[in-house]
């Protein structure tokens, strides 16, 4: 079993630059998309070229949208939320995709609310990334377990996403979260970097426990906002 803690200022510059670049790429890309559509209508005999062009544009599009998430959360979008609700929503969202891969998502969200101060969309994005990776790691099906609990000693809400997939070899663990590190043919290698950045922006931590051939567990720790809520 491997364990990994992230340094809080790692790749700060990379993140800020990436978000800025992504923003600049967005607008021209939208224009290109529109004109490619028009061109395709005029050149129906070249449809095989357009298929490639469109799929490559989609790729740029998914890379830029992942990078855009690197921007700091806007303080006005920060709300105290029950993390259980966020996780329930994300699990439901990915349920169909999971079933198609013969995977069950089990939610063990506990009796007590886990209040965190967060930008809902960004935190959702983190768990979408983690659960998607879990699905993609389980070629032969299996179970994903999603849990939320309160760590009172550390005043943290702890969420876990555990899978029974291929696992991550020990020597690869250090590469997790580095930009463009991917072992997938169609991967971007940005999902985890973005997730680390988002959790860091929320003053949280991500820990990874993995064993090749057995499975992987991602643990997210976020400051408990429950007490803050009672006091205010
Ligand atoms: P991508 O999914 O596009 O490859 P990510 O940043 O989401 O990019 O993940 C980077 C790499 O980390 C993956 O390609 C995979 O090798 C590894 N990885 C992430 N999550 C898991 C997991 N749950 N099980 C096994 N490997 C994983
Ligand atoms: Mg991914």
How would you describe this structure to a colleague?
The protein has 232 residues and is of the alpha+beta class. It has six helices and seven strands. It has helices at residues 12-42, 47-68, 83-100, 120-137, 191-201, 226-231, and strands at 78-82, 103-108, 115-119, 142-151, 156-163, 205-211, 215-223. The strands form two sheets. Strands 2-4-5-7-6 form a five-stranded mixed beta sheet, covered by helices on one side. β4 and β5 form a beta hairpin. The longest helix has 31 residues, at 12-42. The radius of gyration is 19 Å and the shape is globular. It starts with 11 loop residues before the first helix and ends with a helix. Adenosine-5'-diphosphate (ADP) binds at residues 129, 133-134, 137, 163, 165-168, 176, 181-184, 187-192, 216.
Short synopsis of the structure:
With 232 residues, the protein is of the alpha+beta class. Helix 1 packs antiparallel against helix 2, helix 3 runs parallel beside helix 4 and helix 4 runs antiparallel to helix 5.
Keywords for this structure?
alpha+beta; two-stranded antiparallel ribbon; 6 helices; 7 strands; 46% helix; globular; binds adenosine-5'-diphosphate; binds magnesium ion
Class computed from helices, strands and strand pairing:
alpha+beta
Rg for CA atoms = 19 Å
- Poorly predicted runs are 1-8
Number of strands: 7
Describe the largest sheet: 5 strands, mixed
Label the overall shape: globular
| Helix-residue proportion | 40-55%
What is the succession of H and E elements? HHEHEEHEEHEEH
Keywords: ATP-binding, Kinase, Nucleotide-binding, Phosphoprotein, Transferase, Two-component regulatory system
Protein name: histidine kinase
Domain Histidine kinase: 20-226
């Amino acid at each position: 079993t491997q364990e990994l803690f992230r340094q809080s200022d790692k790749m700060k510059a990379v993140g800020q630059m990436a978000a800025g670049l992504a923003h600049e790429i967005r607008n021209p890309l939208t224009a290109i998309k529109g004109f490619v559509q028009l061109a395709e209508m005029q050149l129906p005999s070249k449809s095989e070229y357009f298929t490639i062009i469109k799929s490559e544009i989609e790729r740029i599009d998914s890379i830029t949208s992942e990078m855009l998430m690197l921007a700091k959360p806007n303080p006005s979008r920060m709300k105290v939320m029950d993390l259980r609700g966020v996780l329930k929503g994300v699990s439901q969202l990915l349920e169909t995709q999971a079933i198609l891969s013969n995977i069950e998502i089990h939610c063990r969200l506990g009796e007590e609310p886990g209040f965190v101060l967060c930008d809902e969309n960004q935190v959702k994005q983190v768990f979408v990334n983690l659960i998607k990776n879990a699905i993609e790691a389980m070629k032969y099906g299996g179970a994903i377990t999603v849990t939320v609990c309160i760590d009172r000693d550390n005043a943290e809400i702890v969420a876990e996403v555990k899978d029974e997939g291929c696992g991550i070899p020990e020597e690869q663990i250090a590469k997790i979260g580095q930009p463009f590190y991917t072992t997938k043919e169609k991967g971007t290698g940005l999902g985890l970097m973005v997730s680390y950045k988002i959790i860091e922006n929320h003053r949280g931590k991500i820990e990874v426990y993995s064993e090749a051939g057995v499975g992987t567990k991602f643990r997210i720790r976020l400051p408990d906002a429950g007490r803050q809520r009672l006091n205010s």
